[in-house]
Prior knowledge:
The protein is an all-alpha fold. About 80% of the residues lie in helices and about 0% in strands.
Amino acid sequence: MPELRVTFQEYARQRKRLNTRLGILILLIIPLPVILYWQHASSIVILLVSLVPPLFVGVLYPTWWRRGHHPNRALKIERRFTAVSLICRPIAFVCGIVTLAAWSLDGPGARHAGIVAALATGVIVTVPFFFAPRNDGGSR
Protein backbone atom coordinates (compact mmCIF):
# COMPACT_ATOMS: atom_id res chain seq x y z
CA MET A 1 0.00 0.00 0.00
CA PRO A 2 2.78 2.58 0.63
CA GLU A 3 4.04 2.26 -2.95
CA LEU A 4 0.52 3.10 -4.16
CA ARG A 5 0.61 6.36 -2.20
CA VAL A 6 3.99 7.19 -3.68
CA THR A 7 2.56 6.54 -7.11
CA PHE A 8 -0.36 8.89 -6.46
CA GLN A 9 2.03 11.49 -5.04
CA GLU A 10 4.22 11.24 -8.11
CA TYR A 11 1.14 11.49 -10.32
CA ALA A 12 0.04 14.63 -8.46
CA ARG A 13 3.50 16.14 -8.89
CA GLN A 14 3.53 15.36 -12.63
CA ARG A 15 0.00 16.73 -13.04
CA LYS A 16 0.97 19.96 -11.28
CA ARG A 17 3.99 20.31 -13.57
CA LEU A 18 1.81 19.67 -16.63
CA ASN A 19 -0.78 22.23 -15.53
CA THR A 20 1.96 24.81 -15.02
CA ARG A 21 3.34 24.24 -18.51
CA LEU A 22 -0.09 24.32 -20.11
CA GLY A 23 -0.94 27.51 -18.21
CA ILE A 24 2.22 29.18 -19.50
CA LEU A 25 1.31 28.05 -23.02
CA ILE A 26 -2.16 29.59 -22.70
CA LEU A 27 -0.60 32.84 -21.43
CA LEU A 28 1.64 32.91 -24.49
CA ILE A 29 -1.37 32.39 -26.79
CA ILE A 30 -3.39 35.28 -25.28
CA PRO A 31 -1.85 38.11 -27.35
CA LEU A 32 -2.15 36.17 -30.61
CA PRO A 33 -5.74 37.28 -31.50
CA VAL A 34 -4.77 40.92 -30.92
CA ILE A 35 -1.74 40.54 -33.18
CA LEU A 36 -3.93 38.94 -35.84
CA TYR A 37 -6.42 41.80 -35.50
CA TRP A 38 -3.62 44.33 -36.05
CA GLN A 39 -2.59 42.36 -39.13
CA HIS A 40 -6.19 42.60 -40.46
CA ALA A 41 -6.84 38.87 -40.37
CA SER A 42 -10.35 37.69 -41.06
CA SER A 43 -12.79 37.30 -38.19
CA ILE A 44 -13.02 33.54 -38.60
CA VAL A 45 -9.25 33.16 -38.33
CA ILE A 46 -9.18 35.25 -35.16
CA LEU A 47 -12.08 33.24 -33.74
CA LEU A 48 -10.39 29.92 -34.53
CA VAL A 49 -7.10 31.07 -33.01
CA SER A 50 -9.00 32.22 -29.92
CA LEU A 51 -10.97 29.01 -29.43
CA VAL A 52 -9.11 26.00 -30.84
CA PRO A 53 -5.89 26.20 -28.76
CA PRO A 54 -7.77 26.57 -25.45
CA LEU A 55 -9.96 23.62 -26.43
CA PHE A 56 -6.97 21.39 -27.05
CA VAL A 57 -4.61 22.74 -24.38
CA GLY A 58 -7.16 23.28 -21.63
CA VAL A 59 -9.75 20.58 -22.25
CA LEU A 60 -8.61 17.67 -24.39
CA TYR A 61 -4.89 17.31 -23.61
CA PRO A 62 -5.21 17.17 -19.78
CA THR A 63 -7.85 14.46 -20.06
CA TRP A 64 -5.82 12.52 -22.63
CA TRP A 65 -2.74 12.90 -20.39
CA ARG A 66 -4.68 11.55 -17.40
CA ARG A 67 -5.73 8.57 -19.49
CA GLY A 68 -2.08 7.63 -19.97
CA HIS A 69 -0.56 8.61 -16.62
CA HIS A 70 -3.12 8.01 -13.86
CA PRO A 71 -2.06 5.23 -11.46
CA ASN A 72 -5.43 3.51 -11.91
CA ARG A 73 -5.45 3.84 -15.70
CA ALA A 74 -5.79 0.08 -16.14
CA LEU A 75 -9.06 -0.05 -14.19
CA LYS A 76 -12.24 -0.19 -16.22
CA ILE A 77 -13.89 2.60 -14.22
CA GLU A 78 -10.99 4.99 -14.86
CA ARG A 79 -10.98 4.21 -18.58
CA ARG A 80 -14.73 4.78 -18.71
CA PHE A 81 -14.43 8.09 -16.85
CA THR A 82 -11.75 9.43 -19.18
CA ALA A 83 -13.62 8.23 -22.28
CA VAL A 84 -16.81 9.98 -21.18
CA SER A 85 -14.78 13.07 -20.24
CA LEU A 86 -13.14 13.16 -23.68
CA ILE A 87 -16.62 13.21 -25.23
CA CYS A 88 -18.50 15.50 -22.83
CA ARG A 89 -15.94 18.21 -22.12
CA PRO A 90 -15.51 19.40 -25.74
CA ILE A 91 -19.28 19.39 -26.20
CA ALA A 92 -19.66 21.45 -23.02
CA PHE A 93 -16.95 23.83 -24.29
CA VAL A 94 -18.87 24.38 -27.52
CA CYS A 95 -22.15 24.85 -25.61
CA GLY A 96 -20.42 27.46 -23.46
CA ILE A 97 -19.28 29.32 -26.57
CA VAL A 98 -22.83 29.13 -27.95
CA THR A 99 -24.07 30.56 -24.65
CA LEU A 100 -21.70 33.51 -24.90
CA ALA A 101 -22.57 34.12 -28.53
CA ALA A 102 -26.32 33.94 -27.90
CA TRP A 103 -26.14 36.30 -24.93
CA SER A 104 -24.16 38.80 -27.00
CA LEU A 105 -26.99 38.99 -29.53
CA ASP A 106 -30.07 41.06 -28.93
CA GLY A 107 -33.55 39.64 -28.79
CA PRO A 108 -35.70 37.31 -26.72
CA GLY A 109 -35.02 34.27 -28.91
CA ALA A 110 -31.28 34.68 -28.49
CA ARG A 111 -31.68 35.14 -24.75
CA HIS A 112 -33.70 31.92 -24.46
CA ALA A 113 -31.22 30.05 -26.65
CA GLY A 114 -28.43 31.29 -24.39
CA ILE A 115 -30.24 30.05 -21.30
CA VAL A 116 -30.84 26.64 -22.89
CA ALA A 117 -27.20 26.41 -23.96
CA ALA A 118 -26.05 27.40 -20.46
CA LEU A 119 -28.23 24.71 -18.90
CA ALA A 120 -26.95 22.18 -21.43
CA THR A 121 -23.38 23.17 -20.56
CA GLY A 122 -24.04 22.59 -16.87
CA VAL A 123 -25.63 19.21 -17.45
CA ILE A 124 -22.96 18.01 -19.88
CA VAL A 125 -20.12 19.08 -17.57
CA THR A 126 -21.55 17.03 -14.70
CA VAL A 127 -22.14 13.82 -16.71
CA PRO A 128 -18.54 12.48 -16.40
CA PHE A 129 -18.72 12.72 -12.61
CA PHE A 130 -21.39 10.01 -12.58
CA PHE A 131 -18.72 7.73 -14.07
CA ALA A 132 -15.90 8.97 -11.82
CA PRO A 133 -14.06 6.42 -9.69
CA ARG A 134 -14.85 6.59 -6.00
CA ASN A 135 -12.09 7.30 -3.54
CA ASP A 136 -13.45 5.00 -0.83
CA GLY A 137 -11.30 2.07 -1.91
CA GLY A 138 -14.18 0.07 -3.32
CA SER A 139 -14.75 -0.83 -6.92
CA ARG A 140 -17.92 -0.63 -8.93
